[in-house]
Write a structure and sequence with these properties.
The protein is of the alpha/beta class. The chain has six helices and eight strands; from the N terminus they run E-H-E-H-H-E-E-E-E-H-E-H-E-H. The chain has two domains: 144 residues, FAD/NAD(P)-binding domain; 87 residues, FAD/NAD(P)-binding domain (3-Layer(bba) Sandwich). Bound molecules: flavin-adenine dinucleotide (FAD).
Length: 232
Amino acid sequence: MDYDLLIIGSGPGGYVAAIRASQLKMKVAVVEKAEIGGVCLNWDASLQSPLLKSSQVLDYMNHASDYGIRIEGEVKPDFKAIIARSRSIAEGMSRGVQFLFRKNNIELIKGSGTLARNNTVEVKDAEGNLKNYTATSIILATGARSKVLPNLIQDGTKIIGYREAMNLDKQPESMVVVGSGAIGSEFACFYQSLGTNITLVEFLPRIVPNEDEEVSKQLERSFKKNEDESAD
Ligand SMILES: Cc1cc2nc3c(=O)[nH]c(=O)nc-3n(C[C@H](O)[C@H](O)[C@H](O)COP(=O)(O)OP(=O)(O)OC[C@H]3O[C@@H](n4cnc5c(N)ncnc54)[C@H](O)[C@@H]3O)c2cc1C
């Protein structure tokens, strides 16, 4: 066997298991077809911390007088700089995982892994070359994908998913966000705070339907208040 453990996917499900297995003296490799660190470190965390932090800072500055602080001159978000900061933080976290792999002697195999027979994983690299790797144990840590809605096929420009929404060249004047769960509401909050006109679509009776009713009410009030403020 080439490895004691082969893991497909380098998100938190994969890289944490890889590090622990290596600490337990196993010979480990991780197969990854996209960004090292998975959706979590490259996308989820870059929505939560850097983008929402920028919108929070902007909100503080717009309401600075409430805190007894006078700001002279115009407070304006620099969309490109906000996106660049968020991508650079994500890249830093991804490099951190690559450092941990090197430190723990975990081999990184770049390509798309498919579970084949007899403890074998077939990996197709970016050039289309195929190579087989064998391992005593194999972990599938391939994460989840966003749901494809049959009547809203993503084209990457007009109808976009979370990756594009976190990496746009230009701030859109208006945006329809389909789904008001935690992720949809975070996007709505971020873009609305920058001045994008947001329509949030939810087919259940209230937004953030998995949260307590009071949370839905409070968030809806906050979205409406921000909308009224930007209309003034
Ligand atoms: C915008 C956004 C915001 C989120 N916010 C939160 C939050 O606030 N709190 C929370 O708990 N969760 C949040 N999530 C969910 C969180 O990101 C996931 O739960 C987490 O990433 C799951 O980790 P994972 O390791 O299972 O998978 P992932 O992080 O998805 O990693 C899986 C990896 O496997 C790779 N892969 C898949 N198939 C193959 C293959 N065949 N060959 C090689 N590699 C492959 C993928 O490229 C990916 O890198 C959010 C997700 C998104 C998209």
